[in-house]
Structure formats: structure tokens, C-alpha cells
Amino acid sequence: MNACKKSGNQYLYFIVVLALSTGARKGEILNLKWENISFERQVITLEETKNGERRVLPLQGYAYDLMCEFFKHRNIVSDYLFPGQSALYPVDIKKSWENAIKIANLTDFRFHDLRHSAASYLAMDGASITDIAEVLGHKTLQMVKRYSHLSEAHTKKVVASMNNKIFTETMSAQEAEERKEDEYV
Description:
By secondary structure, the chain is mainly alpha-helical. The chain has helices at 2-5, 12-22, 26-30, 61-72, 94-103, 112-124, 129-136, 141-147, 152-167, 173-184; strands spanning 37-38, 43-46, 55-58.
């Protein structure tokens, strides 16, 4: 994120924030026009998606705040949120993305991996597979499973928390206190 923020491309950071906060594909983001943004409803409407269906994405939190600020300084000559050198086309972020990846010292990381990250963050925050499928626009739950797998460390933490809630009542006060201390270590 820091490398994107420092990029010579004025749009890269916000594009990456949108990718992480909405799970949208690169092409979906780059082709956004101001008519696709509803500030009142706090949503982005994607008219043309990979699977050919219309999709509505929530625009919340930090991404919404950035969008409001971005709107104040928009390029009024272009309908695109992220216009290229010609206002008739969206910006090309290929070189700036590659530079940011290099500066961040990442290997084997593609823009599409941001979509994977968004799905994983949703899953780790408790979103159901159905919710994630809706956000990502997947028709089958099988597609979601390849994006929303959880890390082993996270699943251990979730199971430990669940066990703690279930069995704390049956433990003595001393056992419960010792278990809490173990979790903090």
C-alpha cells in the first residue's frame, strides 16, 4: 500500500483500495465511470462484468471516504474515474503496478491477488460463502472456495475462541484464568 501511495501514478493507491474493499476486478475498476457511483446509496454499480451480469458493490468506510474526496478533485473532462492521457480511455496502470510490486519487494503477486485478498478478509471477518459469492459476483460456491480459504493460524484462533466460549463454564476459575494467560502468550 505504501509503494502504491508513493507511485507516480496519481490513481494507483485509490485503485488498489477499491480492489481490496470491493473485490472488483482490475478491468471493472479501471472502466468505472462517474455514473456508476451512487454517493447517496454508497454503492458502485458494475453494468458489465466478466459473467455478463450487473453487480452492485457496497462502497463503505475508507473507500467511501476516499471516493468523496476523489470526487472533489475529479477530472471533469472525462466520464472515467481514472482517465488515461486521453480522456476517452481509462488509465493504464501496468507499469506503475509493476514498479510498486518491485518497490514493495513482492514476488509472484498479480493485481488479481487483491481480489483473492478481499475474499479472504471477508471470510476472516465472518462473511458467509454466500455473502462472498455475492460480493465477487460468482455464480457457484465452488468458485468462492478458491478465493476464501483461511489461513491455518486464523482457523486455529477461531476454533480456540469457540472452545473457550463453550467450555469456560465447565472449567474452574483457576483453569479459565490459566487458559486466558496462555492465549495472550
